[in-house]
Amino acid sequence: MLPHKETIFALSSGAVPAGLAVMRISGADVPAVLAALIGSLPPPRQATLRSIRTRNGLVIDTGLVLLFPAPHSFTGENVAELHLHGGRAVVDALHRELAAFPNLRPAAPGEFSRRAFENGKLDLIEVEGLADLIAAETEMQRRLAVEQSSGGLSSIYYGWSERLTRARALIEAELDFPDEEDVPGSVSDQVWADVSRLTEELASHLEQLEAGEIIRDGFKVVIAGKPNAGKSSLMNALARRDIAIVTEIAGTTRDVLQVDLSMDGYLVKLYDTAGLRDTDEIVEREGIRRAEKIITEADLLIFIEDLSIDSVTEEPPEGAVLVGTKSDLPSRSVRQYDLVISTKDGVGLEALRGLIVQRLKAKVQPQSMAIPSRARHREALSRSLAALQASLLSPGRGLDLRAEDLRVAGDALGRVTGRVDVENLLDVIFGEFCIGK
Ligand code: GDP
């Protein structure tokens, strides 16, 4: 492991002022810097109470100091953590002191994680899981991120990679001793039986991606219907606060409004849309265009209709939940609704919440949380699957070509975990992080 030229530091805890502030330092110079700040080095990995001083001997603060000598640290380099009181002036003073050391500089966003990746402490899946864990707002996002950041998902891919490597090695052997190819029950049969099992496992793993995406990015629920049907009132009622403007004037909502809700531990992204009608008004027309777009992307469409007016409306799109609104008013509709609600007196709202959760859970039934959840995973896993399928498609094609398919499948898998050629992806992935991680 080549030591990095510069040693980096950053506040790894949240915004000051706070009870505590944790300054993290990583790099070859850590022991020297620490010795300068606190006198002698503390024993490795033991929280030690020390005064932290400027080079002029003035006390900046007193707090816990931890030293993690390389390679047994988050980044794989020498790492120190200084736990100070979380006051702005305290943190600023330490910052100034650190920046004055030669070869020390503030860390860029995600730079600690990037060094951890470069030193083989984390793979890309774990790095992404860590970013997700930090960003997690719901219980299910947290569970997904924990599984990913702690290597549960990676271990599946490493297991598959090993099986592919073994298969290729056996095929190589077979190519070197072609006479044995026709022997019944030969090595080749075992290889292809396992490749076929692997293909099935990968295919069913990929089927879980939708569930992973819903957990990570949210379940999209779109409220649509005619102007004045009560869409904005429903959005506000479900969010339990005023997000959308409610008026009796048709066409008030002109853009797509969105609010994040947590339901049963899942992230639900609720959208209120412009009322669907023919109009020449240019802004409203753009609103309707956006509404139509988000409707096509919905995981669940709630199509609402004012049951107090007896206008004939068109059929809701397939799969939509048809909800009659304003049930506090006399009904003049002959329609069969899936549910009737009133935002005025709250009738049906709990049932509607229950229905949203039920529809969500019907799509997200993960057996485990070791499932893919990003477009990046989809691309690489799909490429791997396609190559595996190609290797099985025409057995008469020649062992060397089929072995090449397995190599392509293995490379694609390697890209998921970052073992193979991912240089171009790194800036995108580490850019997601905040400073100090
Ligand atoms: P949108 O245009 O579909 O977003 O509809 P709004 O939510 O702005 O509501 C249109 C009008 O219907 C407003 O005057 C609301 O006060 C009224 N409204 C909405 N929901 C209900 C309801 O459940 N009962 C009654 N009586 N009026 C409602």
Description:
By secondary structure, the chain is of the alpha/beta class. It folds into three domains: 7-122, Gyrase A, domain 2 (2-Layer Sandwich), CATH 3.30.1360; 126-208 and 370-418, tRNA modification GTPase MnmE domain 2 (Four Helix Bundle (Hemerythrin (Met), subunit A), Up-down Bundle); 216-363, P-loop containing nucleotide triphosphate hydrolases (Rossmann fold, 3-Layer(aba) Sandwich). It is 44% helix and 17% strand. The chain has helices at 30-38, 88-99, 111-118, 124-135, 139-149, 152-176, 187-207, 209-217, 231-239, 282-297, 349-363, 375-393, 399-417, 423-430, and strands spanning 7-11, 18-26, 48-53, 59-68, 79-86, 104-106, 219-225, 257-263, 266-272, 300-306, 321-325, 339-340. The strands form two sheets. Strands 3-4-5-2-1-6 form a six-stranded mixed β-sheet. A hairpin with a 6-residue loop joins strand 1 and strand 2. The longest helix has 25 residues, at 152-176. The chain is flat and about 80 Å long.
Strand order of the largest sheet: 3-4-5-2-1-6
How many beta-strand elements? Answer: 12
Tell me the count of domains: 3
Uncertain runs: none
CATH level 1 name of the largest domain: Alpha Beta
Helix content: 40-55%
Ligands present: guanosine-5'-diphosphate
Strand content: 15-25%
CATH-level-2 architecture of the largest domain: 3-Layer(aba) Sandwich
Name of the CATH superfamily of the largest domain = P-loop containing nucleotide triphosphate hydrolases
The rounded distance between the terminal residues' Cα atoms is 21 Å
The mean pLDDT is 89
Specify the biggest β-sheet: 6 strands, mixed
- Elements, N to C (H/E): EEHEEEHEHHHHHHEHEEHEEEHHHH
CATH topology of the largest domain: Rossmann fold
Q: What structural class do you assign from the helix and strand content? A: alpha/beta
